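lol forgot to send this yesterday, sorry. C-alpha cells for the thing we talked abt
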C-alpha cells in the first residue's frame, strides 16, 4: 500500500460532509440577518452621501444669492435680510448679509438718502425727491444699523473661526455710537475691538481701533450739520419756491394780458418823412 492510501482516514468523508452541512446550516441561519444589516448599512451610507450633497448645494446656492444681491452697487436691504433668514446657520452667509445691510443703513444715515433709491448718475442726487430722508428718518436707520450689528455680534460671539466677523460687527457698533455722539460708548467698543484683534492676531485692526480711540476728541469737536429747520434764511430766501406748474401758470397769465394802447409810443411823422427823403 503506498503512502497515499496509508493517509486515508476512516470516516473522513462523513466528517467533511458534517462540516459542510454545518456551514450550510450557518448560512441558512445567519444569511438573512447579515444581508439585511448590509442593506441597511448601504442605505444609511447612501442617505448620508445624499445629505452631504444637499448641504454643499445649499451652501453654494446661499453664496450665489448673496453675491447676486450685492452686485450692482445698490443692493436692497429687504433682499439681504430675506437671505439672512432663509440661510440661517449656513456658514457665514446670514452674518455677511446682515453686515451688508448694516452698511446700507449707516450710509443712509450719513448721506440722508433712502437705501436702494435710484440715483441720477449725472447729479449724484436721488431721482425721486421722496427718497431724501429727514432728520427723524436718518436716526431710525442709525438705530436699525446698531440693532443689526448687535445681532451679528451675538451670533458669532465666542464662535471659533468667526472672530473677523465679530470684529466687523464691533467696528459698526462703534460707528453707531459715534453717530449718536455717545463717544464714551464708542471708545468702550473700540477697546473691545482692540483686545479681540490682539488676541486673534490681527495687528492692523488693533492699530485701527487704537487710532480711533486716540482721535475721539477730534470727533467731539465736529459739530453735527444743522437741520433744514435750523438754517436761518438769507435775505431774499424767504420767498417760497414755486413749483413747475405754478411757474407755467404765471407765464400763461402774462401771455394773455393785452397791451395798454396808451403805453404804446406813437410813430413820429417827421421822422418817417425824413427817412423817405433820404432814400434814393
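and heres what i got for the seq, position by position
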Amino acid at each position: 500500500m503506498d503512502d497515499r492510501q496509508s493517509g486515508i482516514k476512516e470516516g473522513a468523508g462523513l466528517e467533511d460532509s458534517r462540516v459542510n452541512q454545518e456551514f450550510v446550516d450557518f448560512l441558512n441561519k445567519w444569511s438573512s440577518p447579515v444581508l439585511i444589516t448590509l442593506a441597511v448599512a448601504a442605505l444609511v451610507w447612501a442617505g448620508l452621501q445624499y445629505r452631504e450633497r444637499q448641504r454643499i448645494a445649499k451652501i453654494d446656492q446661499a453664496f450665489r444669492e448673496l453675491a447676486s444681491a450685492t452686485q450692482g452697487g445698490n443692493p436692497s436691504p429687504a433682499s439681504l435680510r430675506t437671505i439672512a433668514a432663509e440661510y440661517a446657520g449656513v456658514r457665514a452667509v446670514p452674518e455677511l448679509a446682515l453686515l451688508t445691510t448694516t452698511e446700507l443703513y449707516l450710509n443712509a444715515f450719513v448721506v440722508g438718502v433712502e437705501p436702494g433709491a435710484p440715483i441720477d448718475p449725472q447729479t449724484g442726487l436721488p431721482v425721486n425727491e421722496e427718497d431724501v430722508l429727514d432728520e427723524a428718518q436718518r436716526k431710525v436707520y442709525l438705530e436699525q444699523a446698531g440693532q443689526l450689528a448687535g445681532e451679528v455680534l451675538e451670533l458669532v460671539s465666542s464662535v471659533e473661526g468667526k472672530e473677523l466677523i465679530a470684529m466687523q460687527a464691533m467696528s459698526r457698533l462703534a460707528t453707531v455710537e459715534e453717530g449718536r455722539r455717545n463717544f464714551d460708548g464708542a471708545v468702550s467698543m473700540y477697546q473691545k475691538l482692540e483686545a479681540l484683534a490682539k488676541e486673534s492676531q490681527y495687528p492692523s485692526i488693533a492699530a485701527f481701533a487704537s487710532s480711533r480711540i486716540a482721535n475721539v476728541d477730534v470727533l467731539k469737536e465736529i459739530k453735527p450739520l444743522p437741520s433744514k429747520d435750523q438754517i436761518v434764511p438769507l435775505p431774499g430766501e424767504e420767498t417760497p419756491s414755486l413749483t413747475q406748474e405754478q411757474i407755467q401758470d404765471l407765464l400763461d397769465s402774462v401771455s394773455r394780458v393785452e397791451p395798454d394802447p396808451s403805453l404804446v409810443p406813437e410813430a413820429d411823422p417827421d421822422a418817417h418823412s425824413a427817412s423817405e427823403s433820404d432814400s434814393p
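The two ends are 169 Å apart (CA to CA). anyway ping me if u want another try
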